[in-house]
Amino acid sequence: MTLLNCLIAGAALLDPTSTGTEPAGRYVEVRSASVYAGACHYNSEYVTQGREALLAWSFERGSHAGVDLGGLSVAVALGDDENLAAAPARRRSIVFVSDQLDARRQAALLGWLLASHGAQLGEVRGVMPVALAVEVGEAGFRVQAGQHSTLQGDVMPNRECCKMPYNVWYAPFELLHERRVGHVQSWTATCVSLGIELERRDENSASFGSFGTPARP
């Protein structure tokens, strides 16, 4: 039995009726197309790019099926034969979890992903325990998923995305509060099973912010 099947089976054994708080925290997403650009630039990229993405969550609080997710992280590599903004053609994904977590918490993260974003993930081709780091702040972000993907960036200079929202494209896969467009300094990804191998730099191609119910002051 593969790790993916083991974790799916483990997720099914968790208590779905267990009460808890809605997961919340910070999120970043990068695409292989500009999130902030002029209309002509957007249209030229739409038909040939934007087929790959990296999604990453950093949980600050909340639980799933009785398992506390606070302090945990999870990331997903996405690929498709068409732009990810279109209807899924051959959507496929790889889930990255920390290799420092036990099977129960890995299963809880996978269970939450499948419950909340299953339709967006398409065919989940595997779960990879890796050295995972997801850091998302007010002004920047960093993701490291072992040797498979690295992402580094910060908020757009002068907050142009707020001044000219008509140049912001591609709604993120996670509903965000105070969404910001990120300037990606560098993003590399190698996922053979998804057909992804890329290196991109100096692009306004990320979205980041907070997800879930905001904490009470």
Can you give keywords for this protein?
two-stranded antiparallel sheet, 217 residues, 12 strands, alpha+beta
What does this protein look like?
With 217 residues, the chain is an alpha+beta fold. 19% of the residues lie in helices and 43% in strands. Strands 7-6-5-2-1-12-11-10-9-8 form a 10-stranded mixed beta sheet. It has a two-stranded antiparallel ribbon with strand order 3-4. A hairpin with a 3-residue loop joins strand 9 (140-145) and strand 10.
> Domains counted in the coordinates: how many?
1
Main sheet overview = 10 strands, mixed
Order of helices and strands: HEHEEEEEHEEEEHEE
Shape: globular
Name the poorly predicted regions.
none
Q: Termini separation (Å)?
A: 46 Å
The gyration radius over C-alpha positions equals: 17 Å
Helix content: 10-25%
Taking strands numbered 1, 2, ... along the chain, how are they ordered across the largest sheet? 7-6-5-2-1-12-11-10-9-8
Q: Strand share of the residues? A: 35-45%
Give the helix tally: 4
Number of strands: 12
| Mean pLDDT reading | 90
Report the oligomer.
Answer: single chain
**Structural class computed from helices and strand pairing:** alpha+beta
